[in-house]
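Schema walk-through. Below, the input block comes first and the output block second. Nothing else is stored per chain. Lengths vary across the set, and this one has 120 residues.
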Amino acid sequence: MIRGIRGAITVQEDEATAVLAETTTLLTAIIEANNIEPSQVSSVIATTTPDITSAFPAKAVRTYEGWDYVPVMCMHEMNVEGALPLCIRLMVNVETEVAQKDIQHIYLNDAIKLRPDLVK
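--- output ---
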C-alpha cells in the first residue's frame, strides 16, 4: 500500500542555507517518526510558498543519505491571501502496511498552525 506522509515547516527568511537546513530537519522528523527506509519511498513532492525562491527543497531531499535515487519534484503552493508565509511542505509517498490513522504527519515551527489537530 502506498501512503502519503505530510509535513510542513517554516523558515525565518528566504535564504538558501535556511531552506535546505529546515527541509532536512523536516525530512529527518518524518523519517524518524515513521521508521522510513529509502527503499520504501516511491516519491517526494516538495512545495514552497511563493515567497521562497532561494533554493529547491528537493536538493536537501536528494542529498539526504541513501535518498539519492528517490524521485523528488518541487513546485510552489497556491498564492492564497492570508496563507502562512515562508512555508515548506513535503509529501513523502511510501510503501507501508501502516494504517492511515497510524501515520505520523509532522508540522514544525509556525507550520503547527496548519494542522494543530495532528501535532502531538
